[in-house]
Each structure stands twice: as structure tokens, then as C-alpha cells.
Amino acid sequence: MSGKKVVIIGAGISGLSAGCYLQMNDYESEIFELHDISGGLCTSWERKGYTFDCCIHWLVGSGPSMSLYDIWTELGGINKETEIINSEVFTRIEGKDGEHFSIFTDIDKFEAEMLRLSANDEEIIKEFTDAVRFFVSFQCSRDNPPPPEVQRTFGEKIPAFLKKWTTLTTNDFAKKITNPVLKQFFLRIFGDFVGNTSSIFMLLATLGYLHAKTAGYPIGGSRPFAKRIEQRYLDLGGKIQFKTHVKEILVENDKVTGIQLINGDKIPADIVISAADGFDTIYNMLKGKYVDEEINGYYNNLRPFPPICQVSLGVADEFTGIPHSIQFLLEESIKVDPKTDLKEMGIRIFNFDPTLAPKGKTALVTFFVSEDYEYWTNMRENNRKKYNEAKDRLASEVIKRLEKRFPNIKSKVEVVDVSTPATFIRYTNNWKGSYEGWLPSMQTAGKSITETLPGLNNFFMVGHWTQPGGGLPPAAMSARKIVGIICKQDGKDFTTSKNSN
Ligand SMILES: Cc1cc2nc3c(=O)[nH]c(=O)nc-3n(C[C@H](O)[C@H](O)[C@H](O)COP(=O)(O)OP(=O)(O)OC[C@H]3O[C@@H](n4cnc5c(N)ncnc54)[C@H](O)[C@@H]3O)c2cc1C
Fold it and tell me: Using CA atoms, how far apart are residues 117 and 352, in angstroms rounded to an integer?
């Protein structure tokens, strides 16, 4: 052991990952987690025989074609037994008049699908799909690398490629499409979640990962994925204290000395890593004493991912032949909260994962933006009856709209479960109910933010608030990076070990 004790706040994927890498490098680490399970947002829950998944739609790095795969295998999130599903269709977007648009994970098929809708737009379609192919050739072709003469051209091509595609918004790209149907489908891909003023690069990269079969879904879903990483951490000698809410990060002479829990207990540490919410860490646990204009600017000006509601249904049907993800327009919108009208619904049909429902039955999940998170948190705090009625109303509105798309579904619904932004905040404490940290923006593209704080020693932050765009890969990668920095500061070589399972 290095002799140093590192305390980690939060047992989400970033906290567990930090713990694993610290243990691999002979640090003594201990995680303090407010919930009674690990995983944070990477979770699922069981209700009457059904499991409702809340996180993994795509796990970037799920296949060996990119080096991120090695991180998931080091952490045990993926092991020899993990079965990864790479679907043929990522999602199917349905239009008003029976028209539909499938996002095929194979880029050649996706190109053919776009050409089917608009042969006139061949030039822009091919420019885009060729860009996806180029992305795959330099980013996720480890198992099938391009010839050396092609690789030699990367140095001059990649910077121009990145500049072109990271500075183009989805809106601006869609303007180049002449066919109104294809244009509309394109603008609907990210729905209300990311918005179309973000760079189109996010879509381009996602299509690249899907094509390279490295953005799949691990059978069992999010909770088993997190549990495997927790087990890896425990096997490496790590310790987790559940139901321990960290209230304060203790500081003496600008050096972090430990943490204080909500029950008053003080835990000394040589280093503290916060893998918890960014705002809470900086402005509450550290009382806003270690900030500068730049950090205040992030929290005043950047947009987080929106808060969401999730309605989960256990349905006595196999949904045979139906794509596992569908987005369709609602004839009558749903008033989700005073600020949000839901006009389109995306539904995940988990009939491809037999572990999530009894035989012959299926778990269905829809989640959607609910901008007014305070509507839910205030109601839950002040009037639980009204809150429960609002949840029931939302579920029945959703089922009513689904009945139009799947006639008779109502009679087959066996289990109904509703989560609101208040649920996400209660269980994970994420600022404003954000489900993935900061939205990616032109301003923050490729940037890491607030991994350390000005003037504060022995302290680091990891997780989705440190890398705009969020998600599981940044959670693990930021943790790996910070442990590398800690090792470097201590004059040690950073090492990793393989998981033997
Ligand atoms: C519906 C949904 C779909 C998603 N889909 C995908 C996807 O397909 N692919 C993908 O890559 N990502 C996806 N994500 C995002 C991904 O789940 C998150 O970005 C990632 O899990 C963040 O991990 P984290 O460790 O940084 O933070 P969190 O998961 O928020 O973990 C923080 C942990 O800290 C704990 N904590 C907070 N405050 C305290 C405190 N004061 N004391 C002690 N503990 C504390 C929390 O309880 C939590 O366990 C999705 C998320 C949601 C909700």
C-alpha cells in the first residue's frame, strides 16, 4: 500500500471506477454512498417479476474495436460471461402518414435507408455517411485496422475532419437536406433530449460506434453492469459504506483533510475524490470557497441535460417482430408538467432481454423530458397525495397514447411504475435532475472541466459533471485519468490489472 488513504464520495460508475484504479495502484480507498446500492444513475429496479432498466441504451466501448473496451474489461463491467446485443436497428422513427425511418446500425444500410427517402439528397447523404466511415477508420478499427498507407494520411485529415463536423449543428446540417420528410426525421433523432443546436458530431460518432459494434447493450442491463464493477472493486480490496450522506469536505489551510457525514462523523483522508454531483460538491460540500469566474460561469451559463420522467410498464405480450425502440408522434400531446408538453414518445421494448420479464412478457420503458423539475420536487415534499395522483395521471396518459400505437395494450398491462425528476434527485442528488451532467456544446467540445478546484489541494472530481456530454465512458475515463494524475504526483507508475473473471 502507498500509505495514503483516499476517500471517494459516491458509488456511481465514476466512484466505483476511481476505487478500482486506486486499489490497482496500491492506495487504500473507501467509498461513501448515500443510497443503499451502488451504480448511481446506471441502475434498474424490480417490480412484481419485471425489471425496468433506466440507463444503458448504448454502451460505448462494448466491443473490442476500440480501446475503451479494455477499460470496461479492467473494471469488470464486461467480463467473459457478458453477452452484448448489437441490434440491427438502433431506433425506428415513425411519421404521420405511415412513413418511417430506421436508424440501421450498419452504415451502408443506414445510407440506403436515407436514399430510399430522398435520392435527390445523395450528395449530402454520402458526405455524411463517408464521414461516419472515416470516423470508424481512425477511432474504432483496432480489430480491423486500415492499411498503413491510409493510416499515414490520418495526421493531416483528422484535424480538418473534426473542425468541420464538431462545428456544424444538427440544425445547420438538416438545412442542407432538401427532402422535407428526411429533414424532419433527421431533426427528430435526438428528440427533446439534446436539441438540434448541438454539434452533429455526437450523432456521427454514435453511428460510427454502432457500425463498429462497440455501442451495444449488455444482457441484464444497467444494474448487473454496475454490480459487476462493484464486485471488482470489492475483490480488489475496496470498501463501500452505504447510506452515508457526505455533508462537507473538510479543509485546513487549503488542504483537504477528510469528509464529514450528515450524522456528524468525520472521516480523515489524505485525498478526497468527489464522484458525486458537481454543484453539490463545489457549492455545498466546499461552501463555494474554491471557485473562480470560469467555474461560476459553467454553473451559471452551461445547460445540463434535462430532467426526465420514466414510465415503465410490465406487459403480458411478446411484441414479436416489433423493433426494440420506436419513436412516434402523439396526435394529442401530454402535459407532463406546467412547462412541458410531450408531442412525441420514444419507447424501448425489452423483448430482446429475457432476463427482464417473465417468459412471454415484456418490460416497456418510455422516458421523456420534464423541464419543470421543481414542480415534482415541491409536490413530493409538500403534498404526497397530489404527487402520487400526478404520477398516476401521467401513467394513464402514456398508456392511452400507447393504445393508439399498440391496440389492446391497456388490457395487457400488469405493472406500472413512474419515476419523476424528484425520484432521480432523491436517489442520486444530480443537480436539477440532470440525467447525464452537461449537455455537449460548441463551447465545451472535447473539454474536461472542474477536475480540480483553484487553490485547493488533495482534492479531485470525477464523473459526468467533469466532461460535457456525460455518460458512462466519461465516468470511467475521468476516474482512470485522475488516478493516473495521483500516481504521477506520488512519483509512481500508473498500473492496471486485468479482471480474471
Ligand atoms: C435514463 C437514462 C439513460 C441513460 N442512457 C445512457 C446510455 O445509453 N449510455 C451512457 O453511456 N450513459 C447513459 N446515461 C448516463 C449515465 O447513466 C450517467 O452519465 C453515468 O451513470 C454517471 O455516472 P457518475 O458516476 O458520474 O454519476 P452518478 O451516477 O450520478 O453517481 C453519483 C453517485 O454519488 C452519490 N452521491 C451524490 N451525492 C452524495 C453525497 N452527498 N454523499 C454520498 N454519495 C453521494 C449518488 O447517490 C450516486 O450514487 C443515462 C442516464 C439515464 C438516467
Answer: 28
> 373-382 vs 421-428: helix axis angle to the nearest 10?
80
Per-residue pLDDT averaged across 254-281, rounded? Answer: 98
**Residue 330 neighbours by CB distance under 10 Å:** 17
Atom of ligand 1 nearest to the CA of 32: 43
Q: Pseudo-torsion of CA 165, 167, 171, 175, nearest 10°?
A: -70
Assess if residue 257 is contained within a domain: yes
Q: How far, in Å, CA of 270 to CA of 256, rounded?
A: 7
**Candidate of 20, 21, 55 to mutate for ligand 1, largest count of ligand atoms within 8 Å of Cβ:** 55
Q: Is 394 in the pocket of ligand 1 (CB under 6 A)?
A: no
**Residue of 7, 20, 42 to test ligand 1 pocket, by largest number of atoms within 8 Å of CB:** 42
Question: From ligand 1's centre to the CA of 39, what distance in Å?
Answer: 7
Give the CATH number of the domain where residue 476 resides. Answer: 3.50.50.60
Please report the pLDDT score of residue 435 as a whole number.
95
The boundaries of the domain holding residue 339 are 308-428
Regarding the beta carbon of 77 and ligand 1, being less than 6 Å apart is answered no
Q: Is the same domain home to 284 and 317?
A: no
CB of 176 closer than 6 angstroms to any ligand 1 atom:
no
Asked whether residue 499 is assigned to any structural domain, the reply reads no
Confidence band for 197, pLDDT divided at 50, 70 and 90: confident
Q: What is the pLDDT of residue 196?
A: 78
Q: Is residue 204 part of a domain?
A: yes
429 lines ligand 1 (CB under 6 A): yes
Residue 1's pLDDT is: 60
Atom of ligand 1 nearest to the CA of 54: 1
- CATH code (residue 116): 1.10.405
Report the number of distinct structural domains present in the chain: 3
Q: Based on the fold, state whether residues 292 and 354 are members of the same structural domain.
A: no
Answer for the pair 431, 304: CB distance below 8 angstroms, yes or no: yes
- Closest protein CA for atom 53 of ligand 1: 435
From the CB of 54, is ligand 1 less than 6 Å away?
yes
Q: Is the pLDDT of residue 468 over 80?
A: yes
Give, as one character, the DSSP assignment of residue 362. Answer: E
| High-pLDDT (> 70) share of the chain, % | 99
